[in-house]
């Protein structure tokens, strides 16, 4: 025990005198890449597939160049129906002029979009696995329904009951169709005629 007690201080002194390994230096941090806070190139690249106006204009020009004969008539006829929905379709004694979108003309608005989509898909060949007869028949049926819809709207919106006008002492019909629905009928007739013309050209081939 005495020997152990005497050797303990010597061991501690030897450990204290022994050289200690130098501490490792932490690796220097890599310089951060300078980032321009005003640089929006990445965000533009990510959204270019959807929001690039030049690409949309280019696609539209290609589509218009591919429209021929009946397809061109049907496409622009459907576009006329679409634009007519932003015009007054009827005039009422209570509400005055009523836009097509704010009345049953909204149905023609939806059908015009379907017609434009059908023509675009068929002309550009976006669905190669689908039988070509399917979009043709869809286009024909929708154009017929759209025309009937506009004619029925004229009948429904005609109310010849005479009521006092909001201003003055005169009288007016309770409800009457306005010029917007007649523009829609012209567009629907053009769409139907263009569809039939295109079908006739397909049958001749």
Folded structure, characterized:
By secondary structure, this protein is an alpha+beta fold. It has one domain (56-204). The chain contains 7 helices and 4 strands, in the order ααααββααββα. Strands 2-1-4-3 form a 4-stranded antiparallel beta sheet. β1 and β2 form a beta hairpin. Residues 1-51 are annotated as: Disordered. Keywords: Membrane, Transmembrane, Transmembrane helix.
Instruction: Tell me the strand percentage band.
Output: 5-15%
Q: Sheet with the most strands?
A: 4 strands, antiparallel
Walk across the major sheet and give the strand order.
Answer: 2-1-4-3
- Alpha-carbon distance between the two ends: 117 Å
Poorly predicted regions are: 46-50
Q: For the residues shown, what is the average pLDDT?
A: 78
Strand element count? 4
Total number of helices: 7
Cα Rg: 38 Å
Biased composition (Pro residues): 20-30
Region (Disordered): 1-51
Biased composition (Low complexity): 1-19
Transmembrane segments: 101-121, 133-154, 179-199
């Amino acid at each position: 025990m005495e020997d152990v007690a005497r050797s303990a201080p010597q061991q501690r002194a030897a450990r204290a005198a022994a050289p200690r390994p130098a501490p490792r230096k932490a690796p220097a941090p890599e310089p951060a890449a300078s980032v321009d806070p005003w640089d929006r190139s990445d965000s533009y690249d990510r959204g270019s597939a959807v929001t690039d106006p030049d690409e949309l204009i280019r696609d539209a020009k290609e589509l218009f160049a591919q429209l021929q004969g009946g397809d061109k008539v049907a496409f622009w006829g459907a576009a006329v129906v679409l634009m007519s929905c932003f015009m007054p379709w009827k005039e009422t004694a209570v509400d005055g002029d009523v836009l097509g979108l704010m009345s049953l003309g909204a149905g023609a608005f939806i059908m015009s979009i379907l017609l434009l989509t059908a023509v675009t898909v068929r002309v550009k060949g976006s669905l190669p696995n689908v039988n070509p007869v399917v979009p043709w028949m869809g286009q024909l049926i929708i154009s017929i329904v759209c025309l009937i819809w506009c004619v029925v709207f004229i009948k429904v919106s005609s109310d010849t009951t005479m009521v006092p006008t909001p201003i003055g002492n005169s009288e007016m019909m309770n409800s009457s169709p306005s010029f917007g629905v007649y523009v829609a009928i012209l567009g629907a007739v053009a769409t139907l005629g263009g569809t039939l013309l295109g079908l006739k050209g397909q049958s001749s081939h």
